[in-house]
Amino acid sequence: MGETVYLNGEFIAKDEAKISPNDRGFIFADGVYEVVKYYNAKAFRYQDHIERLNRSLAEIGINYTQTNQLEAVFNVLLSRNSKLNQQAGIYLQITRGADTRVHHFPKDITPTVYAFTTDLVSNTENLEKGIKVISADDIRWHRCDIKSVSLLPNTMLYNKAVEEGAGECILVRDGYVTEATHSSVCAVKNGVLITHPLSNLILPGITRKVVLEICAANNIKVEERLFTKEELLEMDEIFISGTGSEITPVVQVDNIEIGERKPGKVTKLIQEKFFEMIP
User: Fold this and answer.
1) Same domain, 149 and 251
2) Which domain holds residue 222?
3) CA separation (Å) from 84 to 7, 54, 73, 149, 164?
4) 195 and 65: one domain?
5) What is the pTM of this model?
6) Percentage of residues in the chain with pLDDT exceeding 90?
7) Quick check: 271 and 220 in contact, CB under 8 A?
8) Which residues in 26-175 belong to E strands, given as ranges?
9) At what angle do helices 206-217 and 265-276 cross, to 10 degrees?
10) Phi/psi at 178 (5° precision)
């Protein structure tokens, strides 16, 4: 039996799913998305994801008011695709919908809602040994706080990392580290965790939020402030965080080794506490 997806109120075979070529998600990347991770059919920080989704929808004016029904949809998808007893992700995309191609937002348009399951298994080797990353100029727009489907800059930069044998690309705007292509960036210096403050230049990461909660509960000092690439390269520890990345140590940036080129003690503590929170 083939994969089941959810599209505009129906559960259908993926091969039967059809979206209009006039959909504004296709024409303008006019939409938002979320990815929720499930550990053995239990969502991690589900409500945080829905709150961020609602904010993204509101920021670009998509009138979709049924996010309170999505949990049931996701559970059906996990069941029908035999993902109940493993680590899995739900990808959800909501676009403004299909209409005549115009540059303003059409009124009285019905959003397109699409969701599917995907394998999202923890990368044990990366978690234990850490990864190499590269750095590059942050070429994205100025509303990175919206989880937009307009990800071409992110994918271009991440593809550069893949071509160079790296696991991520850390982004630098006007000399300051912002985040990575699909994860948040945290660094540690003298036992203090440092990360870019929330603003229009970074996504309010769910796992980032969890990291700060762990720090508060374990007396780890936090500084949410700007820091330069030069500072980054002199940090004792670096890690990226995200729904897929979880808490992944960074042991090399470009050609510079970080710390002792192995996960540091603060990173390992945050990792440990993070996985204790997994449902």
Assistant:
1) yes
2) 124-276
3) 21, 26, 14, 27, 36
4) no
5) 0.96
6) 99
7) no
8) 31-39, 42-43, 87-95, 112-119, 131-137, 169-173
9) 110
10) -100, -75
**Buried residues in 24-56 as b, exposed as e (16+ CB within 10 A):** bbbbbebbbbbbbbbeeeebbbbebbbebbeeb
For the question of residue 107 being annotated catalytic, the response is no
Amino acid at the residue 189 = K
| Cβ atoms of residues 227 and 238 within 8 Å | no
Q: How many CB atoms lie within 10 A of CB 10?
A: 9
Which of 63, 97, 119 marks a domain boundary?
119
How crowded is the C-beta side of 46, counted as CA atoms within 13 Å?
16
d(CA 76, CA 78): 5
Distance CA 158, CA 166 (A): 9
d(CA 113, CA 67) in angstroms, rounded, equals: 10
Q: Clarify whether residues 91 and 148 are in a common domain.
A: no
9 and 88 share a domain? yes
CATH of the domain at 166: 3.20.10.10
Task: Provide mean pLDDT across the span 159-165.
Answer: 98
Active-site residue, from 147, 221, 229, 273 = 147
pLDDT level of residue 1 (50, 70, 90 thresholds): low
If you count them, how many residues does the chain have? 279
User: Residue 135's beta-bridge partner residues?
Assistant: 170
Q: Note whether 75 and 93 are same-domain residues.
A: yes
Q: pLDDT tens digit string along 253-277?
A: 999 999 989 999 999 999 999 999 9
Q: List beta partners, residue 256.
A: 253
pLDDT digits (tens, 9 = 90+) for 182-202: 999 999 999 999 999 999 999
Joined tokens for residue 1: 């039996």
The count of other CB atoms within 10 Å of the CB of residue 101 is 10
